[in-house]
């Protein structure tokens, strides 16, 4: 390869990294401004509630159905493996811990990013493209306080609830498959689960995860929407970026949080 | 209180350093007058309007709007200034998630403490002035282009601003809506006692309603005058623009290499 | 979608979400362990704790009475020091013994307490004198082989 091509290659990488860093800083400043100006979103709670409806309630169907199916698959796969070790009665433990610690927050977060996150980005991006944001500014109303903040907080409030519903549905699905279909003893299913799942360690940590994911996805969604190029193509690209970046963020944060929370035993 | 509502002195502007979009513009808009800014697409007239609307700061020179220098405005002063201005965007920029009524009521609800029944009456009066009182309960997506623009006009003038800005208000309208909007702009200016600035390239119709007009070409102010003077102006650019001639100071051909070279002819 | 319908749905959604959380906490989780009861700490030294981990249960007569709070190494006696939080409701005599046991054949390890007969009860910070280490599989096999070899040679001697 010619020297110029090699140099060009590295320059492009460098520029890409710099651009990402710049965007991260810009995004952080945006988040800070957003939080500081959230007074309207909290005082006029109606606005935020409306966004909880659009982000949370309208995501219920996909969350509940997916949760049910994930739980059912866990039940099937779990039983298949556990019964080889004569531990099929621990199915409840397997299903519950998998969901509450990991699958609930993570899968619900990914689904939320795809459904609600992309919708939020598209909405804000389109408002920008059709000059509604500029119009609001010209009418002396801060669009970030009025349009962006309620959507952000709506997402943050919805996410933990959706994750809890996902986990609950999943456990129910595991119960249906394990107890009703396969025939594991019902008492053993629940009692072993209750013995193994700790409220503080597992459930609370799962809730914390879902809150963190909610913050991350909502931040990315509103930022990409607000920062989108105000054309049809720009909005479409922003929507894609929201889903991709949110998904990566959820998985990366999941690793960090899991490492922090679940280093059990002597690994101190 | 000076006699000029808008004073633009030696203003230059560039979005990026080194590339100027506007060069040394001088403009004065007396109180109560309806002024037109005309020129080709991309000549910088919308940018100029944005500077007047304090959405952009001049890179050089000063812009004084309603006795306030826009360069020095901070957040609160900026919003105070914007409450005295109204702006009509090119395609209306109505808030698509609210009804027509809510759109017009928006500024009243955000900036005043008026009770709902008073707001109701005011909104109805504004809609009556633009002839759309019957469409109060409709959503913006149900309106035609002309109707949407009329609603946007009602919304922009909701708080009886002292300065009205119009960004290409006639674009894409059928002849009847065209006439309606033109009449509304003129009537609103006179009845509100406001000052209005229209940015447009619909020369003939604009010359019928404005008191004075400015011509911008390539970011420079090239001509100005009262409508009758402009119509009979000898200046080549004004001639070409006003009478819609295909060729003149603004060439027909975009810059290109020799024709023969492009057709790959042997040197003739 | 008018306001009251949105309000209704949001209310239902939030209620359902909290219901799910409650379900998880009560039916799925071990809410009993989430007690705010006072607990007191006792220590025990073991020659070998095997696979005992922090947060492992401390049981007596099969009932969970506490949790392992910390595991440290004593550099003077080269033994493991296990610190346990015992539920304040349960008082144990000072001569209680602690053993590292395994739940089931291959299950996780826990500390089993067997109450002694002393009149005086353990206080916060006390140390259990009698301890029995975990069973290490290699030692067990080694011992078994040794016993088998000893039996064999004994039999030979007797002949």
Description:
Chain A is mainly alpha-helical and 268 residues long. Chain A has 10 helices and no strands. Chain A has one domain. Chain B has 268 residues and is α/β, with parallel strands linked by helices. Chain B is globular and about 75 Å long. The mean pLDDT of chain B is 85. Chain C has an 8-stranded mixed sheet, with no helix packed on it. The model of chain C has no long low-confidence stretch (mean pLDDT 83). Classes of the chains: A mainly alpha (268), B alpha/beta (268), C alpha/beta (159).
Task: Present the secondary structure layout.
The complex is a heterotrimer of chains A (268), B (268) and C (159).
Chain A lengths: L2 H34 L2 H5 L1 H11 L4 H23 L8 H39 L2 H7 L4 H40 L3 H11 L2 H29 L4 H30 L7
Helix pairs in contact in A: 3-7, 4-5, 4-7, 5-7, 5-8, 5-9, 5-10, 7-9, 9-10
Chain B lengths: L3 E10 L8 E9 L3 E6 L5 H8 L7 E6 L2 E2 L5 H9 L1 E4 L11 H12 L4 H15 L14 H12 L6 E5 L7 H18 L2 E6 L2 H7 L2 E6 L2 E6 L1 H5 L4 H8 L15 H4 L6
Parallel strand pairs in B: 3-8, 3-9, 6-7, 7-8
Antiparallel strand pairs in B: 1-2, 1-4, 4-5, 9-10
Helix pairs in contact in B: 3-4, 3-5, 4-5, 5-6
Chain C lengths: L2 H26 L10 E8 L10 E4 L2 E12 L4 E9 L9 E6 L6 E6 L11 E3 L1 E3 L4 H22 L1
Parallel strand pairs in C: 1-7, 2-6, 5-8
Antiparallel strand pairs in C: 1-4, 2-3, 3-4, 5-6
